[in-house]
Every structure is written in C-alpha cells, then in structure tokens.
Amino acid sequence: MRKPTLQDVAQAAGVSYATADRVLNARGNVSARAEARVRDAIDRLGYRRDVHAANLSRRRVYRFLFLLPSGDHSFFRSLREAVLAEKAGRAPDRVAVSLREVRAFDSGALAEALSSLDPDQCDCVAFVGLDSPAVLEQAARLDKAGVRVLTVVSDAPAPGRAAYVGIDNTGAGRTAGRLMALGHTGRAGLILPLIGTRAAKDHVDRLEGVTQVLADSARIALLPVVEALDSPDRMRDAVGQALADAPGLTGIYSMGAGNRGLFQAIEALDPDTRPLVIVHELVPHSRAALEAGLIDAVIDQKPAEEIAAALDIMRALADGLPVPPGPGITPTIYVKDNLPAQPAPGTEGDPRK
Amino acid sequence: MRKPTLQDVAQAAGVSYATADRVLNARGNVSARAEARVRDAIDRLGYRRDVHAANLSRRRVYRFLFLLPSGDHSFFRSLREAVLAEKAGRAPDRVAVSLREVRAFDSGALAEALSSLDPDQCDCVAFVGLDSPAVLEQAARLDKAGVRVLTVVSDAPAPGRAAYVGIDNTGAGRTAGRLMALGHTGRAGLILPLIGTRAAKDHVDRLEGVTQVLADSARIALLPVVEALDSPDRMRDAVGQALADAPGLTGIYSMGAGNRGLFQAIEALDPDTRPLVIVHELVPHSRAALEAGLIDAVIDQKPAEEIAAALDIMRALADGLPVPPGPGITPTIYVKDNLPAQPAPGTEGDPRK
DNA sequence: CAGAAAATGATTGACGTCTATCAGATTCGC
DNA sequence: GCGAATCTGATAGACGTCAATCATTTTCTG
Which of A202, A320, B23, B39 shows a CA-CA span of 20 to 30 A to B333? Predict the structure, then answer.
C-alpha cells in the first residue's frame, strides 16, 4: 500500500531498474516494446516520481528571475518587495529567486536585459509585458533556449510566453464603474476619469471597462479623460481645475498612479459633499487616504499574490508539468473596513531554524 | 559556497557527525560544552536542515485532518471541496490530507469526533470552532498529546489552539455597511437585516459590524433583525413580509445562508427600483444572482484560500516552525465584474505524470 | 552468418538526512 | 583509583532518485 517506487515499476514491467529509468528520463536506447511495458506499468501502479528525492539526487536548484520595473512608484516597489519576501520563504524548497530591475516602460532596456540572459543560468524568467518587437523576439529566443518565459501584471503576446499572471484590466475598470454606479443609485452624476497615459495598455483597458459600465446608466456622464502622466503635481492641478470647471462633479476615478496629488486636492474639500473617489493599488498613500475617509474604494491587483502565483507556475513549468489552472488573479475591492492587517515593517523573512 | 550540510557543521564545531546529529535532533547524551559548540557552528554557518532530505530519510508523511460540517449548505460544501482539491495537489509534498464530516453546529458531535482521534495517526487537526467546554477540553487534550490544533472559519478560544484561519466577521459586517452607505449617497434609506441565527457567532459579529457603520449615517435606518434560520422558505416569506410592511425599503443585508429564498422574492420586483442587496459567500446561487443583476454585492471569505492557508500553517506547525505571519484572510467584495473565472467542473485534480 | 549497432541488465556512488549500533574515551561517585 | 555512568566517534544501511559504467544479450545489416 506504500507509494510505488521506480523499482516497483520496473518489476511490474518485467524490466530492470535501469531500463525503467531510461524510459522515465528519456535517455534513449530503449525498444518500443520495453517503453510501452514501462509506461503501462506506470499507469497501472499510478507511479509518480518523488520530486524531492529526484531534486536531492540531481542537486537541482530552480533558478528563477524576475525582471521588474525600477523606480519608486509604490506599486512597483510592492511588487519588488513581494519578490524579496518570497525569496526567503522558498529557499528551503530549492528555489533560488532573483530580482533584477529594469527601467520602467523602456522596452529597449527590457529587451537588452532579456538578451543578456544566459540560458544556462536560469530556468525561468518573468517580466512585465511590453508590446515591442524586440521584447517578443527575445522571449522567443529564450523559449527556444529552454528558458520558460512568463509575463506578469501586463501581458505581451510573445509566441514563447508560457503564461500570464495578472488581472483583467478591463474587468477592473468595469468593477470601478459598478461601484460608481452603486454610489449614484437614484441620482445623477458627473465623473472625472484620470489616466496615467494612453500609451499604457492597462490604463486604456480600465478606461474601456469603466466606460462600458457607465454607458448603461443614462444618469451618469463622463467628463473628457485627463492624462496626468502618473505625476502627483499634474494630478493635483488637473483635479483642481476640474473641480473649478465642473462644480457638479460627483465622482473621480483614477486609473493610474501619482494619486498623492489627487489626495491633496480632495483634502481641501468639504468631507460631506466631496465626490466619490476610486483609485487603483493599495499602497501606503492610498491606504492612508482610505482610512482617513478621503476616498471610497481602492481596486487592488494584489502584487504579493501575483508573485506567489507566478512562482507556483514557474515551478510547474520548470518541472515540465502542465500549468495548474487556478482562477487567475481577480481585482480586489478594498473599502475602509476590509483592509488587510498592516504587515509589521521588517517582519518579513528571517525565519530562524 | 554550497549550502552547508550537517557534516560541515560537525567539522566546524570540531565534533563528529554523530554528535552534531544528537544536538540537532535532541537525542540527549551530549555535554553542555559540545552542544554549545554545535549550536554556535549552526549559527555561524547559517545551517538549515534540508527538510526534504530529512523527510525522505525518515519516510515522513504529514497527516492532517479536517473536521468539517456536513450538510448541503453551499458554503460548507465549497469548504469541503477546497479540502479535496488541495488533497491531490499536496500529495507530492508528502502531505496526506483527510476530511471527516461532522454534524454542523453540533458541539457534542464535534467533541466526540475529536475525542476519537488517535494522536498516533494524526499530526494536526483543523475544525470549525464551536465554543463549548467539551470541545475546548478535547482541543487541550490533543495539544498535550502532540497533535497541533487549529480552528478555521470560526474561532474557539481553546487554550491549546495553535492558530485560527478565517476572516474577521465584524469587519465583514462593517464592509457590508460601508457598501450600503455608498449605495445611499445623498439619499435616505431603510435596511432589512437578515440573520441565520443569533446562536451563530459569525452572524452576530456581522450584525454588530453593519450596525456600527450605519449608526454613523443619520439618514439610514435599520429595521428589526429577522432570523430566517438559514432556510430558503422562511427567508422568502420574511422578505415578502418586509417588502409589504415597509414599501420604502431600500436595502437588504443577508448575513447568513439560505439566500435562495431571498433571490426568489427579489426576482418578483421591478429591477429598476428593487432594493440594494448584499449577501455573503460566493456560491453557485449567489453568483448567478449577481450575474443576473438581482443583487449588488457578495462578500466572500474565500474558502479555497482559507484551506490553503490552513494547510500552510499546519505544515509549519508540524515542522515545529513558528507560524508564518501572513496578512490573514480578508473578506473580499464581489460585484458583477470581478468574479473569478468559473472553475470548469471536474477539472480539479488528476494532474498526470 | 559475421560484425556492428542497439538494447538491456546489473551495479555503484552520489544527494543530505535519519537511526542504530558498538567500541572507545572521559567523567563521576565513593 | 576502580567500576559505573556518561559522553563521543566511527560507521553503516536506509530513503527514492539520478547518472554513469560495463558486460552481456538481442537485433539489424549486408
């Protein structure tokens, strides 16, 4: 009743251990007949290779690399922190995670970083997708060289890309729209959509989503989109301007970053009549604004979960297993009352013994 | 630069492998001096025991048991399904998960099940907490006998209970209240609170939460609480009654189960003027109601994540590690647009090769 | 049918740890 | 300082797999 070993398989197949091993590890020099018998025995016995024993024997270490945007955007920072946190936690499982930073939104730099990657030093790379020919080409090259490639946060339609881990941004935009509509039950509204840049696919997708949902409701109108380039200063000015121009403003939906400026503008308003505000990404500033009642909801893509899910998939890819399905990452809605416990700073890592 | 082995530690400490092993595994018969030298070497080298090699050698299998409520409540069913799904996925990691069903809310049955547990057959049990002396006593007994004990979904203040995995239900109730308030921006409201039973702590906690938040807003009033005992029929009747009695009803918050009856009652109303509806737990019925636009939001405690988190903790407990912090489970808000992809039925498990 | 090529079996030493045994060394009580 | 108790070192065989070698058998080729 014990789990069958390869020895058992060999015996059941009527071949030697060596032959069973040759089949299992595709070493060649096996007759079709013997291979069939072994495969059959594997099925019959329900044999599963003991990955841990195997990894022990071959001294295997999984080498995974994250190429993530540098810069001090809080969201990218939390992505990078999530990687470092996982790094410590996965070490006992023979997973060596490393992190390299590349200039944000710079497809040239990303392609360069990918091209300098030695396929013998890395089993799997993950990066934030950028739709550029050079990037796609490098992804294909790595795939051919035996390095599994996956995208996170934002997809890139590279042919060799084995998986994407991230949220559906159109859905996230629709979610924001749904909340806006909820906040306008029984009354008319005028909403200001703030975007970082039209060049960012995720921002555009969110815009499309919110537009879809709000188009349904005749009473809610959208002002023209303002591009604030993820800059707090521009953001503050743009919001000030909009509030002055449109006194009847009832909602603000910010699809990009740089929300610090937005919060400053709102702080100046009467809390009882301020517009309904929804922003993206739970970072220290947005969390504080939510707790202070300056804003109403934050839509988050849970970077820590994203990284964890990516690592699980990288692991499966490296072992040659099918990518586990999993429900994908769904955007989460935070209000003041369902915030996760504040992680104590510096508590990550260092699990003794 | 390789990871140090116990052999390296022994050498660095100037003792034999056998002595280092005696220290590491607390086998006794070691002088204080030798022990100190070994401990020091462990620290200096940053030695970590290779758990996988150790488990291989000692043929260890983690035996974890979930005692979960039986019955066909969708929520309990999804809990049980989550356990079965994890069971397959964790087998390669030497984790043997088993599931036993006990009558829901029956503390006698739970205590009985706990008492019949053989400490030699199980490393860790998880159950849905019930605050009864018999249950607490059994938890303490098991803890003494070396079986780690944790509660899920609902806590029990047992002294031996090593961890609780579940959401903060007061927070969940507040979250619902916040959404209700959002849906009543700029207008007055009258809300019907539906509860399963006052005997269930989680229901009462949610009620307290929603009351807290709505007390702040002078324009929103709460009707007297209706106990529907998680029964669809009672639920339907209660809602029908309330709609007749209070034509100005603008919101319904259902804190318990049996929402099928609620959905039936709402289906009969004019979709444009129906009250705002919030329920708990994303199960097939509530999901369908959300997709159909019958209700506005579902607050979910993510049973699959809860089980996964519980298993991670059980594993850590069994290895004698400190319980990893982790942000706990926060209740998630689902609207029509951020629903997880429907898991294809029967796709779980059976990962070949 | 001989010779070459291909397939198979048998075996061995890792990997890092556990568990056990046994002989030898050190310390202790008295 | 003698026997007993305690401590220490050395070693060996597992666990399930990998990777390699070598001898042998079978099959193919012409």
Answer: A202
Predicted pLDDT of residue A1: 63
Residue A150 has pLDDT above 70, yes or no: yes
Q: Look at residue B254 in the predicted model and tell me its pLDDT.
A: 97
Q: Strand C: which residues 184-223 of A lie within 7 A (CB)? A: none
Q: Is the pLDDT of residue A27 over 50?
A: yes
What's the pLDDT tens digit per position in A28-72?
889 999 999 999 999 999 999 999 999 999 999 999 999 999 987
Beta carbons of A4 and A16 less than 8 angstroms apart: no
Beta strands in chain B (DSSP E): 62-69, 95-102, 124-128, 148-152, 161-165, 189-195, 220-222, 226-227, 251-254, 276-280, 297-300, 332-334
- Does residue B258 surpass a pLDDT of 60? yes
Identify residue A175 by its one-letter amino acid code: T
Q: What number is the average pLDDT over the span B332-341?
A: 95
CA quadruple A244, A246, A252, A254: dihedral positive or negative? negative
* Residue of A59, A164, A165, A185 to mutate when probing chain B, most B C-beta within 10 A: A185
> Which of A157, A170, A182 has the alpha carbon at shortest distance from A251?
A182
The per-residue pLDDT of chain B, averaged, comes to 91
Tokens of B6: 């116990």
Percent of chain B with pLDDT over 90: 76
Which stretch of DSSP H or E encloses residue B239?
helix B232-245
Distance of CA A297 to the CA centre of its chain: 20
Residue A2: how many CB atoms within 10 A of its CB?
6
CA distance, residue A164 to nearest chain B CA (Å):
15
DSSP structure string for A155-220:
----TTEEEEES--HHHHHHHHHHHHHHHTTTS-EEEEEEES-TT-HHHHHHHHHHHHHHHT-TTE
Per-residue pLDDT, A349: 37
The model carries a pTM of 0.90
SS3 state of residue A323? coil
Rounded Cα distance between A346 and A267, Å, is 30
Q: How far is the CA of B34 from the C1' of D2 (A)?
A: 27
Token pair for residue A157?
Answer: 């339609």
Distance CA A133, CA A125 (A): 18
As a whole number of angstroms, the distance between CA A319 and CA B99 comes to 29
**Cβ-contact A257, A283 below 8 angstroms:** no
